[in-house]
């Protein structure tokens, strides 16, 4: 039951924090994560506070902070008072706060810094991973709704990251777009194949395969349903056409008798009576087996003639009434 409560996004994040990263990549991860998941406290002493609702993500960030900057941090948790009352994990350090924030391009002189160095090649993937860990979501493909998004607090940050993502990806691989939502800025993807590429880029290979398998399975069943619906529609259409053909044949039999029906018309009419739901192509195939060399267009021509001739009698009766 607990497994069912774990969202697809959380599974991705759990896989990401279990991967191996270089120190540069961990630095990029810290920059992306702290930028959107961290706060500065001025009282009672200057400190950096980082929070996450995922224990595995919080422990990973704690370890990255220790390995990259060698600082001591406290680790604790609180319980949310609203909704599901989930646990929130907190990391706090009072060591080298200003130095860390400047080095990660987050704050300088207590002013927010738009990332530049952190978007260079050796940091960028880590930066995107860190951003996704704190503000990213990817829908469960089993729902049939495909979306991937990362949320930014500042428009300048979102635009810089968007420009970088579009610069190293081809148009059909990861075409991120940006929208504003409730004073936040969201980079998003909606095409399922592009989401798979993004998962691969992040390094969530296992979940990328899960995403692809679920997507393909769902698309397969959707295609099957569409084919079934089309087949049912085609059958209904053929049956309706067949019934109309038989009505026209009976009118001509009643009004003109056998004198109207040549050998060809007689054979085709008999085949139609025997196969009410057959398509014109199927009637042509049956006629060929009975020795009549005819195509689908020939069958169409015959029934067009029958319909036209039958209509002369129904039109006269209508006028007479």
Give a structural overview.
The chain is α+β, with helices and mostly antiparallel strands and 321 residues long. It has 2 domains: 202 residues, Roll (Endonuclease I-creI); 101 residues, no CATH class. It is 59% helix and 14% strand. It has a 4-stranded antiparallel sheet. The protein is rod-shaped. The termini are far apart. The C terminus is likely disordered.
State Rg.
34 Å
Report the total helices.
Answer: 12
Q: In terms of structural class, how would the helical and strand content be classed?
A: alpha+beta
In total, the number of domains comes to 2
Cα distance, first to last residue?
73 Å
Oligomer: single chain
H-E string: HHHEEHEEHEEHEEHEEHHHHH
Total count of strands: 10
How would you describe the shape?
A: rod-shaped
Question: Main beta sheet, described?
Answer: 4 strands, antiparallel
Tell me the strand order in the biggest sheet. Answer: 1-2-4-3
Beta-strand share of residues: 5-15%
CATH architecture classification name of the largest domain: Roll
Give the class-level CATH name of the largest domain: Alpha Beta
CATH topology of the largest domain: Endonuclease I-creI
Average pLDDT over all residues: 87
Précis, in short:
By secondary structure, this protein is of the alpha+beta class. The protein has helices spanning 2-5, 8-17, 23-37, 55-69, 97-103, 121-135, 155-167, 192-202, 205-255, 263-274, 280-289, 296-320; strands at 38-41, 47-52, 74-79, 87-93, 107-108, 111-112, 136-138, 148-152, 177-181, 184-189.
